[in-house]
């Protein structure tokens, strides 16, 4: 069935881990009759979590595309992982959603992951609604959670529904917009009866109704004037203004649900259908043309344009490309242009997905989300357009990795399979990076956390039959000097045929940090032909790249080639390269060489109660704390810490903070390594012959 844009709701289910996103998605599908009964993450039979890793760990790892029909409206539901190790999945979903459904645990309230996805939704300028899920659990205090939500996100947070009897057996919901009590069946069917609010609930809904009217009026100047003139809005005016108020975020609706018992879900879906964002609310989106000029794409354009927000390779199917149409339609056998690679793609089969179940369709229309199979050269973040309109949609800016490891293949001969596997995993997940470090001669992989790397390791084994281990990477130290020195080196070789002769006199001195290698000459007279200056420089730079003190690159040294000798026949380029290298090596060893270590600038976001433990741990890592920011229950510590102290820090941080601490890191500079640590580093086996 094809749906016009106004009858489509594209939204991402996002939130902190264990908030109940997957359970809520199941409940919505069951409520709409899209599945016969709800599965559970514990049983491993949910529609969303169908990958082997998800079933083993009982967590979401991938964003899953789901759909259902509710009152003639198509819901494209994207269930995303709560663990921020897999944030690329959530970012892709938010990129193509028309609003964010932020799910909050009814016991825990807003957590650090909630704040994180909230910030991302703001970056995409998405309206948000909040679902407080699990109101049937022990010790639920909905009013406390509501207060915390308002503390985090402002007074505009407003309850559209709230539980009358929170806790085990909860089945009654107060609907503020309708001023009704909704009594749900206890059999999990989602069926309910409605009665007018009575007693204290009638008084509360009257107060909330008045508050809602004020919030809605703020989004519309006409309604605001009407409100000031009359002191009230009619029911019709109120309902007509709710959609605009949600778009303007003059109020952010909150809904109470118990997904596992299907309480509150139907009313949530009603309100999404009537007042939720559709593609019409973002009917013009920015684009960039071939020359880099800004333009836009309109939903009403006949020419197709879509954004690829996710790619994944499925067994027996091949690569699937998840797309959101921003204009036009696509059909099998069409040819589209990929401006990122300058290539043309012929569209084969197209599908709609229900988790892993595919249904072939004939068209993905404007504003809709679907899947294309077996594209040749199109990956996550790419745009596909008609060949006569070569524009691209802005791609997601993914966060930098915060954990790194050296990948070691456990079996020889797996190099080709490993390379193919790593490339595929990066195409699917842009927050996973890999590359060969020429300094340390290691294959380094980087991700969003230890769980992220562990899952990628298991996927390499399962999908590509490559077993690997991830070990601590070598720290990329630098070498420099602490004092001036000089050396003279004569290179003389006579072994039959043409000989080699060169004599080089060098002075070296330390420079300011960040100065690199400064090479110059102050030659006078005719002892050395100036044609050999580049040869000496080449030899010096070769020595700097190879390292002298411990095998690391040399930096922050100024070199002066001030004199030497040559032979009219035997002096040549290779001779002066060799003499330059050896003279520099000798001078370097006499200039009190020492190691520099990389320093990382880090930001650590933690609940306030863990500040002391986290700062003590940072200090034990030789960290320097520069400040603490933030006034909510989550605070941000800004610090600088040596890289050699940061291996698996993400794991330690989560252990210190009950799993909720987050950190980001970036290279800051190089500082001298303390002498006691340098001696320990130089005693390691790899430096035995240095």
TrEMBL record:
Catalyzes the GTP-dependent ribosomal translocation step during translation elongation. During this step, the ribosome changes from the pre-translocational (PRE) to the post-translocational (POST) state as the newly formed A-site-bound peptidyl-tRNA and P-site-bound deacylated tRNA move to the P and E sites, respectively. Catalyzes the coordinated movement of the two tRNA molecules, the mRNA and conformational changes in the ribosome. The lineage of its organism: Bacteria, Pseudomonadati, Verrucomicrobiota, Opitutia, Puniceicoccales. Residues 6-280 form the Tr-type G domain. This is Elongation factor G. SMART domains: EFG_C (SM00838), EFG_IV (SM00889). It comes from the Bacteria. Pfam families: EF-G_D2, EFG_C, EFG_III, EFG_IV, GTP_EFTU. Keywords: Elongation factor, GTP-binding, Nucleotide-binding, Protein biosynthesis.
């Amino acid at each position: 069935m094809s749906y016009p844009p106004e009858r489509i709701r594209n939204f991402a289910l996002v939130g902190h881990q264990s908030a109940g996103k997957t359970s809520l998605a199941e409940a919505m599908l069951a409520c709409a009759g899209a599945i016969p009964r709800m599965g559970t993450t514990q049983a491993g039979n949910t529609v969303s979590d169908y990958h082997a890793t998800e079933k083993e760990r009982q967590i979401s790892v991938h964003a899953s595309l789901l759909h259902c029909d509710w009152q003639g409206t198509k819901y494209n539901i994207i269930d995303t992982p709560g663990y921020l190790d897999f944030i690329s999945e959530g970012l892709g979903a938010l990129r193509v959603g028309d609003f964010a459904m932020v799910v909050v645990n009814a016991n825990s309230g807003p957590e650090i992951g909630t704040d994180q996805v909230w910030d991302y939704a703001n970056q995409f300028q998405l309206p948000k609604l909040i679902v407080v899920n699990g109101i049937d659990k022990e010790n639920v205090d909905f009013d406390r959670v509501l207060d915390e939500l308002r503390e985090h996100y402002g007074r505009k947070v407003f309850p559209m529904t709230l539980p009358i009897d929170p806790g085990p057996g909860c089945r009654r919901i107060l609907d503020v917009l309708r001023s009704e009590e909704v009594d749900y069946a206890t059999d999990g069917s989602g069926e309910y009866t409605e009665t007018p609010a009575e007693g204290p609930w009638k008084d509360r809904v009257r107060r909330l109704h008045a508050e809602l009217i004020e919030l809605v009026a703020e989004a519309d100047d006409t309604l605001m004037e009407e409100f000031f003139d009359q002191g009230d809005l009619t029911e019709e005016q109120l309902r007509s203004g709710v959609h605009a108020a949600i778009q303007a975020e003059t109020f952010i609706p909150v809904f109470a649900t118990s997904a596992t018992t299907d309480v509150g879900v139907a009313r949530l879906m009603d309100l999404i259908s009537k007042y939720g964002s559709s593609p019409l609310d973002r009917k013009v989106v920015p684009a960039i043309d071939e020359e880099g000029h800004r333009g836009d794409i309109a939903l009403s354009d006949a020419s197709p344009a879509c954004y690829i927000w996710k790619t994944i390779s499925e067994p027996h199917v091949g690569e699937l490309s998840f797309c959101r149409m921003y204009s036009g339609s696509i059909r099998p056998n069409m040819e589209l242009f990929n401006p990122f690679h300058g290539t043309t793609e012929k569209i084969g089969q197209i599908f709609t997905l229900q988790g892993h179940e595919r249904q072939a369709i004939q068209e993905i229309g404007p504003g809709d989300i679907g899947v294309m199979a077996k594209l040749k050269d199109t990956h996550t973040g790419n745009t596909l357009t008609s060949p006569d309109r070569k524009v691209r949609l802005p791609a997601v800016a993914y966060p930098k990795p915060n954990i790194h490891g050296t990948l070691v293949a456990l079996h020889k001969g797996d190099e080709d399979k490993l390379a193919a596997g790593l490339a595929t995993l990066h195409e699917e997940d842009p927050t996973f990076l890999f590359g060969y470090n020429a300094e340390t001669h290691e294959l380094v992989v980087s991700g969003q956390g230890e769980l992220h790397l562990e899952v990628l390791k298991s996927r390499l084994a399962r999908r590509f039959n490559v077993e690997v281990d991830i070990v601590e990477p070598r720290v990329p130290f630098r070498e420099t000097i602490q004092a001036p020195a000089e050396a003279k080196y004569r290179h003389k070789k006579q072994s039959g045929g043409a000989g080699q002769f060169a004599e080089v006199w060098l002075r070296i001195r330390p420079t300011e940090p960040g100065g690199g290698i400064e090479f110059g000459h102050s030659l006078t007279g005719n002892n050395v032909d100036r044609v050999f200056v580049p040869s000496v420089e080449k030899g010096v730079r070769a020595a700097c790249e190879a390292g002298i003190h411990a095998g690391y690159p040399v930096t922050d040294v100024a070199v002066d080639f001030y004199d030497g000798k040559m032979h009219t026949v035997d002096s040549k380029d290779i001779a002066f390269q060799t003499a330059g290298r050896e003279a520099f090596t000798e001078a370097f060893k006499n200039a009190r060489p020492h190691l520099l270590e990389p320093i990382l600038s880090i930001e650590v976001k933690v609940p306030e109660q863990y500040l002391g433990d986290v700062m003590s741990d940072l200090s034990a890592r030789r960290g320097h704390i520069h400040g603490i920011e933030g006034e909510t229950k989550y605070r941000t510590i800004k610090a600088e810490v040596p890289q050699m102290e940061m291996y698996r820090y993400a794991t330690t941080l989560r252990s210190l903070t009950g799993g909720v601490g987050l950190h980001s890191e970036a290279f800051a500079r190089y500082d001298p390594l303390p002498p006691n640590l340098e001696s320990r580093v130089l005693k390691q086996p790899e430096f035995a012959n240095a």
